[in-house]
Amino acid sequence: MTATLLAVALSLISAVAYATAAVAQERLAARTAAQGHGGGLRLLANSAWWAAVGLNAGGALLHVAALRYGTLTLVQPLGALTLVAAVPLGAHRAGRRVARREWQGTVLTLAGLAALLLTASGPAPDDALSLTEALLVAGATSTLLALLARPGGRPGLRHATASGLASGIASALTQTLTVSASGPHLPLWQAGIVALLVAAFAAGGLLLAQTAYRGGLGAPLAVLTLANPVAAAVVGLSLLGEHLRGGAPGLGLTLGGALVAAWGVVLLSRASARQPGASTVVRGSASVPPPQEAPPREPVPDPLPVETLPLALRTAPVPPPGLPHPADGPAHAHGGRGPRAA
User: Fold this and answer.
1) Is position 262 within any domain?
2) Other CB atoms closer than 10 Å to residue 316's CB: what's the count?
């Protein structure tokens, strides 16, 4: 098996693991919301929750292994396969058929990724960032993150972009560690510094994803999924000697495939946002639990029918004896009898 096929296979299994974990976490999140306070602590004793944690960890390890055998321009776009794998799994869990929009998004995403495979495939990576390059990349990325994460109105898309950039750079730095582990690229102490950068960007991407999803899932999820491979590809093409095959026609095929895959991701993200309780896990982001339902309101008693209300509440106040009732005419001023005839 060539390095490209191995990287694709590992990425596919990683995507299935992430998607399965997302479906399990979505179900557990719904149960936790129904249990109210203390439901989160019960997850620690739930074997299904630990299984989801294990699937997420396994997906992450498989992704790291894929980075060892595939270039950044190949492996990172395959992260969109998580959305594709979540479609049948989520539909099966919900007991429904796959919607037409989901089928369209799946076909477009797979077609676009297939075009990228033709131009981005190549031998296993053998180049790594130096410590100076890693620090420069980290500094430039941190500046962009600070600009995107600044306070302001409607931060959803800005934070989603920042989360995608952070997770993409974390993957690029992770590849440097995997390549250095099998060759004399970085001394141990320098590898430790790069590992700290990986942890910082991964945690930052996680937190930014959480804030991005507060205003809704669809658009932020699409932006995050697309920003991740773009950030990684910039590092790979500019600093790691990666290149696209096929010259000018290959570049055109790559751009066309990227646009088709991007539109497929947008359709899948919109479909995920429309499904009740939908949650999707992508590399560098957290699972998104469904919004918790508002607590039931106390029942408000219906007003009593008018016929059952006391007389004093249905009429004007009763005047003191000897005074005419406001609603009475002159005839009632004489004890309820009409005027005497002359």
Assistant:
1) yes
2) 9
Separation of alpha carbons 282 and 77, rounded Å: 11
Model confidence over 155-213: pLDDT tens digits?
Answer: 888 999 999 999 999 999 999 999 988 777 788 899 999 999 999 999 999 888 888 87
**Cα 259 off chain centre by:** 21
Query: pTM for this structure?
Result: 0.73
The reply to whether 338 falls in a domain is no
- Integer CA distances (angstroms), 172 to 7, 161, 315, in order: 15, 17, 81
The Cα 298–Cα 284 span in angstroms is 41
In a domain, 229, yes or no: yes
C-alpha distances out from residue 118 to 67, 246, 251, Å? 18, 9, 11
Q: Is residue 295 part of a domain?
A: no
Count of the separate structural domains present in the chain: 1
Q: Which two tokens mark 236?
A: 């790979």
Task: Reduce the DSSP state of residue 275 to 3 states and report it.
Answer: coil
Measured distance between the N- and C-terminal CA atoms of the chain, rounded to whole angstroms:
125
Of the given ranges (72-81, 119-128, 304-313), which has the lowest mean pLDDT?
304-313
Domain that holds residue 216: 3-274
